[in-house]
Design a protein that fits this description.
230 residues, alpha/beta, globular
Length: 230
């Protein structure tokens, strides 16, 4: 593959938003590395292998698993230009419930810890290249606290602060870091969980993917450290 073609790593690529982002970036000509804990989800989504697609089973809460995925990416494509941190989870419940601490630790590891670990793993390569774009997924609900959402709000709020910190730290080395703040994404699972909602007010994964595509491109070269509501 020509090194002129940019390579993007996408975590949570087997989910609705991750699949939309992978599809959009493939359409834009990127080489795409799709990470998913259960690789069969990727096979179901993507079908036959694509020449510019590398699917890797990866646990984004495990630093060694992430490093291995980055090594495979560099062996296959020789570069990492974009990181899309899509993997995440949502749950809510009383902060004094019996499983509240377990929920907190799970969401902090998945929503915040994984973001730090993946950025930590790809940043050296991007710094060495003198360029790179990282796009994280926060949440509008992370801007303020909410009842029964302590763990979720805390984990997504951490994503915003990490985005700003990495952006400031590596700006001089050509690395840009931004995050998107969705509200409710129009996915089959969300429709199932909230059958009485007005789906027309939700944002489709495809529209969010287009915004991620913009942040992955040189058209957004002046955008760094931003938290953008979608």
């Amino acid at each position: 593959m020509s090194n002129e073609i940019k390579t993007a790593i996408i975590t949570g690529a087997g989910g609705a938003l991750g699949f939309a982002v992978a599809t959009h970036l493939l359409e834009q000509g990127f080489q795409v590395v799709a990470l998913e804990r259960h690789v069969e989800h990727l096979q179901t989504r993507f079908g036959d292998a694509h020449a510019r697609l590398l699917a890797i089973a990866c646990d984004v809460t495990d630093a060694a698993s992430i490093r291995a995925a980055c090594d495979q990416t560099l062996q296959r494509f020789g570069r990492i230009d974009v990181l899309c941190n899509i993997a995440g989870g949502f749950s809510m419940g009383s902060s004094i419930a019996g499983d509240a601490i377990e929920q907190y630790e799970h969401l902090m590891a998945l929503n915040a810890g994984a973001v730090f670990k993946t950025m930590h793993s790809v940043a050296p390569t991007m710094v060495a290249q003198g360029a790179g774009s990282i796009i994280n997924i926060g949440a509008q609900s992370a801007l303020t606290g909410g009842a029964n959402m302590t763990a979720y709000c805390a984990s997504k709020s951490a994503v915003i602060r990490m985005t700003e910190s990495f952006a400031a730290e590596f700006k001089a080395q050509g690395l840009r870091v931004n995050c998107l703040l969705p509200r409710i994404i129009d996915t089959p699972q969300n429709r199932k969980d909230m059958p009485g909602a007005d789906f027309t007010q939700w944002t489709s994964p495809e529209k969010i993917a287009q915004t991620i595509g913009f942040l992955a491109s040189e058209q957004s070269a002046a955008v760094n450290g931003a938290s953008i509501a979608v």
